[in-house]
Amino acid sequence: MLRTVLLGPPGAGKGTQAVKIVEKYNIPHISTGDIFRENIKNGTELGKKAQEYMNKGELVPDELVIDLATDRLLADDCRNGFLLDGFPRTVYQAEKLDEFLEAHGQKLDTVIDIEVEKEELVTRITGRRVCKACGASFHVVNIPPKKEGICDLCGGELFQRADDTVDAVETRVAEYNEKTKPLVDYYTKAGNVVTIDGALPLDTVFAEIVKALGE
Ligand code: AP5
Ligand code: MG
């Protein structure tokens, strides 16, 4: 049983570590960014609304996110816990999540905060390539796929996210610092946050996360 949240700026490695964490702890990976991108791909009303904000690098308004996330937490596969990636992202979202968990007799275990400095974030994000089929992330320099443009895991085609431009990254980092970073304090007050140096190699970061979450 593990109920946890990954905090950290865009490009810190949340999605990359999430894949490894959910495999080890056998819990679902819930990424609100992925849910929005799926809606954009399928042309839903929600996708159309979210896309306007996402492409500029701005946060989607709280009212479009909160029910979406908490409804997902009601699904059967969350009974043994969950990993939230990209939610909550504002203090208001965190308060609403706390209310939801309390109403269901649950609480969060350790919250993981992955920190990386801005220069490195920009390099990571502009070099990121994501698999269209399975969602795995690669990086043209740091974590190159064996064959250019092709996913190592499933053979799918790699693409660049619409918000992985230099301009949108500036806004995303600014949004993080202004609206999401205060959550580190919020969870510090609750006494359950561990900050991890996300600039370390991928496997070292994962080992630190496992140390924080417990075997
Ligand atoms: P979201 O999809 O959550 O994106 P993000 O927070 O901007 O984070 P990223 O996915 O860009 O980074 P990551 O930390 O997952 O890094 P990754 O592992 O890929 O959100 C997108 C948008 O949706 C938001 O801007 C907002 O508009 C909206 N949204 C979503 N949720 C919302 C919410 N709750 N409220 C409001 N709006 C919301 O790694 C990045 C790169 O680095 C990769 O290339 C990877 O290969 C490489 N890398 C990873 N780890 C390492 C390492 N240790 N060393 C070297 N390279 C590494
Ligand atoms: Mg991600």
Automatic annotation (TrEMBL):
<feature type="binding site">
    <location>
        <position position="161"/>
    </location>
    <ligand>
        <name>AMP</name>
    </ligand>
</feature>
<feature type="binding site">
    <location>
        <position position="200"/>
    </location>
    <ligand>
        <name>ATP</name>
    </ligand>
</feature>
<protein>
    <recommendedName>
        <fullName>Adenylate kinase</fullName>
        <ecNumber>2.7.4.3</ecNumber>
    </recommendedName>
</protein>
<feature type="binding site">
    <location>
        <position position="151"/>
    </location>
    <ligand>
        <name>Zn(2+)</name>
    </ligand>
</feature>
<comment type="pathway">
    <text>Purine metabolism; AMP biosynthesis via salvage pathway; AMP from ADP: step 1/1.</text>
</comment>
<comment type="similarity">
    <text>Belongs to the adenylate kinase family.</text>
</comment>
<feature type="binding site">
    <location>
        <position position="93"/>
    </location>
    <ligand>
        <name>AMP</name>
    </ligand>
</feature>
<feature type="binding site">
    <location>
        <position position="128"/>
    </location>
    <ligand>
        <name>ATP</name>
    </ligand>
</feature>
<keyword id="KW-0418">Kinase</keyword>
<feature type="binding site">
    <location>
        <position position="32"/>
    </location>
    <ligand>
        <name>AMP</name>
    </ligand>
</feature>
<keyword id="KW-0862">Zinc</keyword>
<feature type="binding site">
    <location>
        <position position="37"/>
    </location>
    <ligand>
        <name>AMP</name>
    </ligand>
</feature>
<keyword id="KW-0808">Transferase</keyword>
<comment type="function">
    <text>Catalyzes the reversible transfer of the terminal phosphate group between ATP and AMP. Plays an important role in cellular energy homeostasis and in adenine nucleotide metabolism.</text>
</comment>
<feature type="region of interest" description="LID">
    <location>
        <begin position="127"/>
        <end position="164"/>
    </location>
</feature>
<dbReference type="InterPro" id="IPR006259">
    <property type="entry name" value="Adenyl_kin_sub"/>
</dbReference>
<dbReference type="Pfam" id="PF05191">
    <property type="entry name" value="ADK_lid"/>
</dbReference>
<feature type="binding site">
    <location>
        <position position="154"/>
    </location>
    <ligand>
        <name>Zn(2+)</name>
    </ligand>
</feature>
<dbReference type="Pfam" id="PF00406">
    <property type="entry name" value="ADK"/>
</dbReference>
<feature type="domain" description="Adenylate kinase active site lid">
    <location>
        <begin position="128"/>
        <end position="163"/>
    </location>
</feature>
<dbReference type="GO" id="GO:0005737">
    <property type="term" value="C:cytoplasm"/>
</dbReference>
<keyword id="KW-0067">ATP-binding</keyword>
<feature type="binding site">
    <location>
        <position position="131"/>
    </location>
    <ligand>
        <name>Zn(2+)</name>
    </ligand>
</feature>
<dbReference type="GO" id="GO:0005524">
    <property type="term" value="F:ATP binding"/>
</dbReference>
<dbReference type="GO" id="GO:0008270">
    <property type="term" value="F:zinc ion binding"/>
</dbReference>
<keyword id="KW-0545">Nucleotide biosynthesis</keyword>
<feature type="binding site">
    <location>
        <begin position="86"/>
        <end position="89"/>
    </location>
    <ligand>
        <name>AMP</name>
    </ligand>
</feature>
<feature type="binding site">
    <location>
        <position position="134"/>
    </location>
    <ligand>
        <name>Zn(2+)</name>
    </ligand>
</feature>
<dbReference type="InterPro" id="IPR033690">
    <property type="entry name" value="Adenylat_kinase_CS"/>
</dbReference>
<feature type="binding site">
    <location>
        <begin position="58"/>
        <end position="60"/>
    </location>
    <ligand>
        <name>AMP</name>
    </ligand>
</feature>
<dbReference type="GO" id="GO:0044209">
    <property type="term" value="P:AMP salvage"/>
</dbReference>
<dbReference type="InterPro" id="IPR000850">
    <property type="entry name" value="Adenylat/UMP-CMP_kin"/>
</dbReference>
<feature type="binding site">
    <location>
        <position position="172"/>
    </location>
    <ligand>
        <name>AMP</name>
    </ligand>
</feature>
<dbReference type="GO" id="GO:0004017">
    <property type="term" value="F:AMP kinase activity"/>
</dbReference>
<dbReference type="InterPro" id="IPR007862">
    <property type="entry name" value="Adenylate_kinase_lid-dom"/>
</dbReference>
<comment type="subunit">
    <text>Monomer.</text>
</comment>
<dbReference type="InterPro" id="IPR027417">
    <property type="entry name" value="P-loop_NTPase"/>
</dbReference>
<feature type="region of interest" description="NMP">
    <location>
        <begin position="31"/>
        <end position="60"/>
    </location>
</feature>
<keyword id="KW-0963">Cytoplasm</keyword>
<feature type="binding site">
    <location>
        <begin position="137"/>
        <end position="138"/>
    </location>
    <ligand>
        <name>ATP</name>
    </ligand>
</feature>
<keyword id="KW-0547">Nucleotide-binding</keyword>
<feature type="binding site">
    <location>
        <begin position="11"/>
        <end position="16"/>
    </location>
    <ligand>
        <name>ATP</name>
    </ligand>
</feature>
